[in-house]
Amino acid sequence: MQPKDRLIFPLDVPNKAEAKKFIELLREEVGLFKVGLELFMAEGPAFLKYLADSRVDYFLDLKFHDIPATMMGAQARIMKGAKLATVHIDQGRKMRKTIEACKNGVKVLGVTILTHLGPDDLEAMGIAPEYARHPTKLVLLRAKLAQEAGCDGVVCAGTEARAVKNEFGKDFLVVCPAIRPLWAAVPGDDQRRITTPAEAIKAGADYIVVGRPIRMANKPKEAAREIVAEIAEALT
Fold first, then answer.
1. Helices vs. strands in the chain: H and E counts, helices first
2. Which domain holds residue 93?
3. Number of independent structural domains in the chain
4. Exposure check for the chain: N or C terminus, fewer CB within 10 A?
C-alpha cells in the first residue's frame, strides 16, 4: 500500500450532496471513504451504489449487531461492494457462518471498544475491573473472539494496535480511529483513547481513520496531505 491508501476519511455528513463535495475534494488524497450510520440512514443503499458506480472505494462502518440468523442475509447484501466493513463480535465463533457469508471480497472487521470510552465508562457498563481498568486486555479478548469468528481484523484505538499485532500477527488487520495530529484542535472532542497518525502507524495500524481534523480544517485537502506525509515518515 502507498501511504495515502492507509488514510480513511469518514463521510460524517447529513446527505449525499455534502458527501459528494468531500469525495470530489479528497478522492486523490485518501485511500477509502467511510460510510457510517448518519449518512446511510439519510441516503440508504442507493448511496452505496453511487459509490460503486463512481469507482469510489469505501469502508462500510454500520457495526452490525444482531443474532446470526437475522444478520446473515441483510448484512451480506448490504456489505457487497465495500472494501472493509464492521460487525460487533461479542458472540464470537457463533458468528463464523455469518461472517464467512459476508466476505465476498469484503474484509470484515470486529469492533472491540469504541474509542470514546475510558476505564470509568467500562466499569459503569459492568465490565469486570480486570478488563475495565486495562482496556488493552479487553481489546485482546475481543480480538480473539473476532479471529475465532473469522474476522479479517479489528477496529481499536492506536494505543492498543501494537498489542493486537503482537498477539495475532501482521496479517490480522488493525484499523484505528480517534486519530488526532498534533496540529489539530477539535472543539468539544469526545474521543478519549487518542493517538497521532505517526503513533498509530508505528504501533502497527494498517489504516487510520481521520475525520474532524480534515473536515474542520480551513484547507481539508492540505490537511489530508499533511497526514499522508506523517504516515509516510512513520513507515520509514
1. 12, 8
2. 3-235
3. 1
4. C
Q: Which three cell numbers stand for residue 219?
A: 484547507
Give strand pairing partners of 37. Answer: none
- Where does residue 147 rank: exposed (0-12), middle (13-18), buried (19+ CB within 10 A)? buried
Is residue 214 within 8 A of residue 22, CB to CB? The reply is no
CB neighbours of residue 215 within 10 Å: 19
CATH of the domain at 223: 3.20.20.70
Q: Residue 20: is it exposed, middle or buried by C-beta count within 10 angstroms (0-12/13-18/19+)?
A: middle
> Would you write out the chain's pLDDT as a tens digit for each of its 236 residues?
999 999 999 999 999 999 999 999 999 999 999 999 999 999 999 999 999 999 999 999 998 777 777 777 777 778 889 999 999 887 777 788 888 877 778 999 999 988 887 888 888 988 888 888 889 999 999 999 999 999 999 999 999 999 999 999 999 999 999 999 999 867 666 677 789 999 999 999 999 999 999 999 999 999 999 999 999 999 99
Write the CA distances from 165 to 63, 112, 159, integer angstroms.
Answer: 22, 14, 12
